[in-house]
Amino acid sequence: MPEFDTAIPLLLVLALGAYLIGSVPFGLVITRVMGLGDPRQIGSGNIGATNVLRTGSKAAGAATLLLDGLKGAVAVIVARTIAGGDAAQVAALAAFFGHCYPVWLGFKGGKGVATFLGVVLALSWPVGLLACASWVAGLALSRISSVGALTAAGLTPIWLILTGRLSMVVLGIVLALLIYWRHRSNIARLRAGTEPRVGRKS
């Protein structure tokens, strides 16, 4: 667990800023700009990239994935630039929480996978690349989006330990647990064998 060298008031301000950045619902913004309707009315009702892909637009899905990841990375980089590594970890958690529970949408947001990958890449790019590779491998082998997400989240604390980023392990575990919590309905469908594969619209 990191020692917080940054003053608590500054940490709180940076956390609030990161939360607001994370709360930007890019999936909803992109689908509306592209005239694709409201992703909350289709598929899982989620605003993340996988559900945006169910609109039939690969470009919208890719843009959502990129921007949701980028907002997490930006929040971390800004906090680290202003106040250092402890603030970066606080910002990572706050941005992730903002994506999952955005104030603009009544605290009903996405499941946090792209934002999770974005904050991990910004905190430690080697670990971020390993997390992304884990996500791609899980997705490629199963053709199920949630399997890729759960694989990346579950392995990230291990990658942090193996690469010596011990000060980030607690954060990695917390983020992984939140990913699993946000995917609890997916886990139930995986156990029942009813989880849809990528490309299906429902």
TrEMBL record:
Catalyzes the transfer of an acyl group from acyl-phosphate (acyl-PO(4)) to glycerol-3-phosphate (G3P) to form lysophosphatidic acid (LPA). This enzyme utilizes acyl-phosphate as fatty acyl donor, but not acyl-CoA or acyl-ACP. SMART domains: G3P_acyltransf (SM01207). The lineage of its organism: Bacteria, Pseudomonadati, Pseudomonadota, Alphaproteobacteria, Rhodobacterales. Pathway: Lipid metabolism; phospholipid metabolism. Its main location: membrane. Probably interacts with PlsX. It comes from Litorisediminicola beolgyonensis. The gene is plsY. InterPro entries: G3P_acylTferase_PlsY (IPR003811). Keywords: Acyltransferase, Cell membrane, Lipid biosynthesis, Lipid metabolism, Membrane, Phospholipid biosynthesis, Phospholipid metabolism, Transferase, Transmembrane, Transmembrane helix. It is found in: Cell membrane. This is Glycerol-3-phosphate acyltransferase. The chain crosses the membrane at residues 6-30, 113-138, 158-181. It catalyses: an acyl phosphate + sn-glycerol 3-phosphate = a 1-acyl-sn-glycero-3-phosphate + phosphate. Its EC number is 2.3.1.275. Belongs to the PlsY family. GO terms for molecular function: glycerol-3-phosphate O-acyltransferase activity.
